[in-house]
């Protein structure tokens, strides 16, 4: 008998919603209330994230893009010809275009993202812009692992993991994910990863708490999403976005703070928020090049080449398994 959909790697909408509900209820029941940052990216959240990437204060996107443009030939040579490119957290695949434009005999591009509609519409656009490349989107939470299509299992795999998304994970979880990547690209392929570097805390705070309030809207959209999808009654106006820099851990921490004491229902379950109580929604760890190379070494990856911008705000690093 055929396997249920979920066993084939495609969870149904109902299963996704049940998991979302369970994660939200579990996260808000903790002493330090928390919500997983992967839930930022519904259709509206993906749009807001694209707006963040265009903010003057959000330096990572344009800095990483410039590094890709300035070093396109060297990066292309590292990846080599005939490569299959697997992108973790591909979003709108904007930076990937710099690679697709520079790779020789590229056979396939496999964007992996949790935001299904956004992923599939991006894939359609890429198909018409790059008709010679096989575009094979996979809807998945890449931290949970996923299978590559049969056809590419013997090709050299380059995992592309831009945007410093790795920074969302605490270092121990980052090592685990890098280990999975190392097994996926094995000895013929490699990892090309974008890593945000530690810097003046004020530059970081400006990037994660912008004047226009786009990051605040992005963060608070999570409450709107919970209201919409999980029959909740968050009064979003009574919550605010907070970003702090934790110097001990070299990371930005993002919270949603309750402005008053209030009670919120999520379906049948009620939660009380004290005035000033915070929900942790995201970590964004910052590294230095040597520290990140040491972390990756714990996962069996060795650094081949590192490209940075003149201000050393950001690094693009190539590793081999
Ligand atoms: C997508 C995880 C790389 O940490 O900079 C941007 C997300 N959050 N502004 C980051 C984010 C708030 C972003 N990453």
Please characterize this protein's 3D structure:
This is Histidine-specific methyltransferase EgtD. It comes from Rosistilla ulvae. It is a single chain. The protein has 321 residues and is of the alpha/beta class. It has ten helices and 13 strands. It has helices at residues 13-28, 43-52, 59-70, 72-79, 96-100, 116-129, 171-185, 201-208, 214-230, 289-297, and strands spanning 84-88, 108-113, 134-135, 138-139, 157-161, 190-196, 239-246, 251-258, 262-266, 269-273, 278-285, 302-308, 314-320. The strands form three sheets. Strands 1, 2, 3, 4, 5, 6, 12 and 13 form an eight-stranded mixed sheet that branches. A three-stranded antiparallel sheet has the order 7-8-11, covered by helices on one side. Strands 9-10 form a two-stranded antiparallel sheet. Helix 2 runs antiparallel to helix 9 (214-230). The longest helix has 17 residues, at 214-230. It is globular, with a radius of gyration of 20 Å. It starts with 12 loop residues before the first helix and ends with a strand. The model is unreliable at 1-9 (pLDDT under 50). N,N,N-trimethyl-histidine binds next to strand 11. The site of N,N,N-trimethyl-histidine has 11 residues, from strand 11.
